[in-house]
Amino acid sequence: MAAGAEIRLGVVAHAIEDDGAGVTVRLSDGSEDRFDIVIGADGIYSDTRQRIMPEAGTPEYTGQAVWRYNLPRPDDLDALHAFNGPTGVGLVPMSSQMMYMFVTTPEPGNPRYDKAGIARAMREKLSGTAPQIRELAKGITDDEGVVYRPLETMLLYGAWSRGRVVLLGDAVHATTPHLGQGAGMAIEDSIVLAEELARADTPEDAFAAYRERRFERCRYIVESSLAICHGQIGKSPPVDNHAATTQMFEVCAQPI
What is the pTM of this model? Predict the structure, then answer.
């Protein structure tokens, strides 16, 4: 707000009309506003993407899902610990007292789990993992604390904008979490987009330059993460997570 942004909660765009000189947006609260540009940063199921690019397709289910749960952090856990295999496990420190565990599991048919009993279901998924993980799994007891999500992915290989409307983040390059770069890619998108808007003569020129700078890195993250996923569930040869993560850090250390 200090930068002059107006934040409205609880509203969505019911219509986005681009006439070439600006964009008129009608909101769900009945209001209507006029903008120079519209940025759709509305996630993998982006309504903005569907409105401006109905031909873009939909996210694709990978055959794998991720489970997450917060647990007390052991004193000696001061970095990410990853355990590879058909059931992948990661321990991620968040503070001096707290960490979260993520678990990736093959889920043929994309099943849904009832909230009641989902903590027990997560513990059962860990029954064949390393002793350290099985011990930690005893702490997974609260159904409300379990976050379960089927893993889906999509990448727009074509344009990321149409007219004065542009997309960023998961709306154009939704990745699985295997390299931990989903949020990082969206943040980089926003920085590059702001830079190109500041230097370009038209929004269309800015959007084209933004996509040109971002596509290869985002493609690399989406495709490399999916390769790890497919290796874990037997759809392709296994990937060495350590080597893949090391390469990812080298790539992401390059200027954007």
Answer: 0.89
